[in-house]
TrEMBL record:
Name used for this protein in its record: Conjugal transfer protein
One Pfam family from the record: TrbM
Keyword field contains Signal: yes
Annotated InterPro entries: TrbM
Length: 100
């Protein structure tokens, strides 16, 4: 019984560590995507942030849902409290409904 509990605890810790290490910071994504929107392509440091943004995709059995994808991407960007809402709106209007 102790081995089962310890194994589950260990797996839980490993899952939370790998998720947080791979998760992109919303503020970094806002900064990079806003730069992309205004024509200032980010350096190689923005590739992971852009990938994180474009990996947010909503689909159903009929395919890609652009409005739901835009809403999900906007919700993610709004996690950055210091981001300008106008900048977020500009990013979403240009890239929110774009597929990958």
């Amino acid at each position: 019984m102790k081995k089962v509990i310890l194994s589950l605890l260990f797996l839980g810790v490993m899952a939370s560590c790998s998720t947080s290490a791979m998760a992109a910071d919303a503020c970094e994504v806002v900064l990079c995507m806003y730069g992309k929107t205004t024509g200032n392509s980010g350096s190689s440091e923005c590739h992971s942030a852009e990938r994180a943004f474009f990996n947010i995709v909503k689909e159903n059995k009929h395919g890609f849902l652009p409005d739901h994808t835009a809403d999900a991407r906007k919700s993610f960007l709004l996690e950055c409290d210091s981001a300008d809402p106008a900048a977020i709106s500009q990013v979403i209007s240009k890239y929110g409904r774009v597929r990958g």
